Amino acid sequence: MVLTLVEHDAGAVDDVSLETVTFARDVAIQEDEQLVAAAFGDGAEDIADDLSAYGVDQVCAIEHDLLDAYAPEGYAESLAQLVEELSAGTVVAPGSDRGHEVLVHLATKLDVPMATSCTEVEAGDVYGITRQRWGGSLIEHAELEADVKLLTVVPHEVSAEPAEAESDPAVEPFAPELDDEDVAVRVVRQEESDMEGIPLSEARVVIGGGRGVGGEEEFAQLEALADKLTGTVGATRAAVNEGWRPHDDQIGQTGAKIAPEVYIAAGISGAVQHWVGAKGSENVIAINTDPEAAIMQKADYAVVADLHEVVPRLNEELEE
């Protein structure tokens, strides 16, 4: 049995989880095992419709009065009991903040190792895995041997692909046995960001600005371009540290991970830490005066020019 953790918003499965399900389905095929999805929270029972196209055989909707909010140890304890109930040999989770946190706790409870940030797996008694390290700058080939193999999948590195044939997954409620100690750490309040516009993680077009933008006021031209392209503005850590943009706008290893159709990187050098957050972009257009800048080597299209000349010209052309 291969068990995959699915994150959703009121029954709507997010893109990273669909990528994870695709990865887990490949493992299940190699193992000749069933693929079971586990989900928490309101709407968990509604994800079957989304997952039927991805070959999921069963959905376990985990329910408990103590799990009315995210509680990492409570989630992990629930999964540990579900692993035992299903005799699951593999658990695959999204490489998100929650996915990593829950699987770390699960690894502790099961007393097994885990492999994070995986991109490929060759299943068997011992798994051969390919995974990213050092923010994606290093590719590691390793082996994983355990009674229960725990894996997380790098976001935006595995394409979400429907199965060759749709399934009709049964939805089964699962009620774990939990006590207050299992939810000692839990979310007690959520505060909405006061930032307006499309969230970076959801934007199909992102305009990124780095130190080369030159200042807080100069980001106005990037905002204008984003408005015309129905996109949103992001920034490098350097621009955030200068106080030009809020941390919510930061793209990179310690910021948002983006996967837009188009990413326009203006005045950005392309440090590894930034690229970790931007490499999921389908098309990268870099604007920089330095043709040797790292971002220019990674870009699909490179414009060797001053962004203060290029961006206003783009705005003028789009205005017409």
Automatic annotation (TrEMBL):
Residues 2-190 form the Electron transfer flavoprotein alpha/beta-subunit N-terminal domain. GO terms for biological process: fatty acid beta-oxidation using acyl-CoA dehydrogenase. It comes from the Archaea. One of its GO terms (molecular function) is flavin adenine dinucleotide binding. Belongs to the ETF alpha-subunit/FixB family. This is Electron transfer flavoprotein alpha subunit. It comes from Halalkaliarchaeum desulfuricum. The gene is fixB.
